[in-house]
Amino acid sequence: MEVPYPSASPPLPPPAAAHVVPAGLGAPHPALTPMAFVQAVVQAYQQRGLSPASALATAQIAPEAVQHQHARITALQMELLCAHAMRELDDEALGWFSRRLPWGSYGMLARASISSPNLGLAMARWCRHHNLLTDDIALQLHHDGPQARIELRTLRPLGAMQEFCLLSVLRNLHGLASWWVDHPIPLLQARFPFPAPAHAPVYEVLFQAPVVFAAPVTSFSFAADWLTIPLVRDEAALTAMLQRALPIQVRPYRPSHNLVQRVRQALAAHAYCGHTAESLAELLHLAPRSLHRQLQQAGTSLQQLKDEVRRQKACALLLRTDMPLKRIAQACGFASEKSFGRAFAHWLGMPPQQFRAAQRP
Fold first, then answer.
1. For residues 169 and 206, is the Cβ–Cβ distance under 8 A?
2. pLDDT tens profile 162-195
3. What are phi and psi of 142, to 5 degrees?
4. pTM for the complete prediction?
5. Quick one: how far is CA 133 from the chain centroid?
């Protein structure tokens, strides 16, 4: 059986849009991102004695608009602004920390965690490795009974960069964690140590959860059940995602390509995850060649999705049942226990019996 996802609460409605994206950037999108975040990016340039003109032009933000406290831009404009600034400044932290995080730093953190057998270990590794990159903040995963939380502590004053730094780091990890399992992880609460800013309503749009300001520590909390969910992404999917990673930070996470979801569901519903390209294509009313092409465009392949579904099913059976390995191998579509063991060790870096023993009390 497939690992069940804890149910998500319905998303909060976004506040009314004040502006729309310039026509040159495509179809209109609501403008919800406060100008305060743009001002933080501009300040990163000022710290280096450089001009933000090129970054602002890329995002189609008029320089004079930056001083308008109540102005808003779209998530797409914020993505373009930050992507340009990170490359131009060679600093993915955009001036938050006492030393730069060169371009590719956050991709390195994601790569260091992608082999984790479950979400809890992936998040813990991400936090631990982030702590090696900077001495300015410290991140830690806590597990208290039915709740888990990511806690962020500042180790030196961040000054005017505090808000944008704390918000961005939490959004980065929450977005990445949701991408790892391809499901928006519903948060119970997000907490920040500074007073509620004038643009406080945007926080509930970004985190889809109640937000507490003037809290003693920065954190977000979620149901601890999520910690045991296996990752459904692999190195190939990560490489594709890193070509354009900022959307998982600047927008609430949405599950991947609809066809990918339908293929996953069809594979999981099959008794042995044994669909072929031909049987799947017939079920989804597509030509096999079209199925392969659309999956490739979505950054994956039928074999990758089969491996993800089999891995997820195997982990669930190992964790939630006492079923012998031979029967688990059969349930996941393997010809023998030996071939299942080889595949599982390739997926998670350990044999299935060791995984079962390590994950149980």
1. no
2. 999 999 999 999 999 999 988 889 999 999 999 9
3. -115, 145
4. 0.68
5. 19
